[in-house]
UniProtKB/TrEMBL annotation:
Its main location: mitochondrion. PANTHER family: 2-OXOISOVALERATE DEHYDROGENASE SUBUNIT ALPHA, MITOCHONDRIAL. InterPro entries: Alpha-ketoacid_DH_E1_comp, DH_E1, THDP-binding. This is 3-methyl-2-oxobutanoate dehydrogenase (2-methylpropanoyl-transferring). Its cofactor is thiamine diphosphate. GO terms for cellular component: mitochondrial matrix. It comes from the Eukaryota. It comes from Auxenochlorella protothecoides. Its EC number is 1.2.4.4.
């Protein structure tokens, strides 16, 4: 019978559906490499990774590791206020970015700087943003690591969790209406999937048939809350079919698998003109941020065991098997990446701050009278009390 709510079959059995009544097998996790980086025979690999692509992916990952290490230490030295690393999740970000098209619009959380680096955002760009200097495209208005680049189709990162999910659906719907062969790629953590915006976004994406690729980075921890306290269902991928969204679970530490999964997800989203949900199983090897001490809620043995499963080393071993990389080349590349990160910090530190007057720009095309009056009041105060102006910050 066709009910207004949908076409459903009838049954004579009073049968419940769900845990304890109809147990279902856990969604399997797609991977292409074993834990040591050796290729697994028989793996479906619809999208090839050649030597040039693999080399660029690896070099981007080691550059990301160098930036994370150096910038984290710089924050600890008091050079800027905040930092977050993507330690343990490098392959999820970089391999997925490699599978996207430059025309695809990207929305991320705050641990996907590797996506932006793949698109051409340099360590110097990152240092300028963290310092909030005059070369920062955000004009010093955002917290450190809240990157953004209009030129690279990368929307500025927002601190509140999950706000980017419904925004990505809107962008994907716009791409669909414009007839563009592009998708919106939306990254988030499993903790963000506990927000209402996640559910609204999946429902909107399905009903609007918006070509958006949702990429959940399930690292097991929402700051200090373990996944076991966040949900009882089959992770995040298990939620997709309930909303009519095709879903796939992938090993986030396997760069080959992530690349193939995202490339295939993009193809499906474009061909079906609809959403796709990927759950990348990973682990946050570092602290949540420089404001966190994860040793207070995680065992040291757990962290050490996962650090030993470095996804970058795993990908390097896969390349070495193919004769595309060797240890000497790796040492040289890491030294070069470290030098670039250090030089970026030094250069960014020498730049002046954005002018104080920039506080009043960019919100309106023509500033309204109350903002004009506020700007005049601030400028008059600073001229009368020049010692209140932060060091290195011009007035105009």
């Amino acid at each position: 019978m066709d009910f207004p709510g949908g076409k459903v079959p009838f049954t004579e059995d009073l049968a419940w559906l769900g845990p304890g009544f109809t147990p279902r097998p856990t969604i399997p996790c797609y991977r292409a490499l074993d834990s040591q980086g050796a290729p697994l025979p028989g793996t479906s690999l619809p999208h090839d990774i050649d030597q040039a692509l693999a080399t660029r992916m690896y070099e981007t990952m080691i550059s990301l590791q160098a930036v994370d290490t150096i910038f984290y230490e710089a924050q600890r030295q008091g050079r800027f206020s905040f930092y977050m690393t993507s330690t343990g999740e490098e392959s999820t970000a970089v391999a997925s970015a490699a599978a996207l098209n430059p025309d695809d619009v990207v929305f991320t959380q705050y641990r996907e700087q590797g996506v932006l680096m793949w698109r051409g955002y340099t360590p110097l760009d990152m240092a300028n943003q963290c310092y909030g200097n005059a070369l920062d495209s955000g004009k010093g208005r955002q917290m450190p690591v809240h990157y953004g680049s209009k030129a690279l189709n990368f929307h500025t990162i927002s601190s509140p969790l999950a706000t980017q999910l419904p925004q990505a659906v809107g962008a994907a719907y716009a791409l669909k209406l414009e007839g563009k062969a592009a998708v919106a790629a939306c990254y988030f953590g499993e903790g963000a999937a506990s927000e209402g915006d996640f559910h609204a976004a999946l429902n909107f994406s399905a009903t609007l048939s918006a070509p958006v690729v949702f990429i959940c980075r399930n690292n097991g921890w929402a700051i200090s809350t373990p996944a076991s306290e966040q949900y009882r269902g089959d992770g995040i991928a298990g939620r997709g079919p309930s909303y009519g969204v095709p879903s796939l679970r992938v090993d986030g530490g396997d760069a080959v698998a992530v690349y193939n999964a995202v490339a295939e997800a993009r193809r499906v989203a474009l061909e079906r003109r609809g959403p796709v949900l990927l759950e990348a199983m990973s682990y946050r090897s570092g602290h949540h941020s420089t404001s966190d001490d994860s040793s207070r809620y995680r065992a040291a043995e757990e962290m050490a065991a996962w650090r030993a499963r470095d996804p970058v080393a795993r990908f390097e071993r896969w390349m070495a098997v193919r004769g595309w990389w060797d240890e000497a080349r790796g040492v040289g590349a890491r030294k070069a990446a470290r030098r670039e990160a250090i030089a970026a910090l030094a250069a960014a530190a020498k730049q002046p701050r954005p002018p104080l007057s920039e506080m009043f720009s960019d919100v309106y095309d023509e500033p309204p009278p109350h903002l004009v009056a506020q700007r005049a009041e601030v400028e008059a105060f600073v001229r009368a009390h020049p010692e209140t102006l932060p060091a290195g910050m011009p007035l105009e």
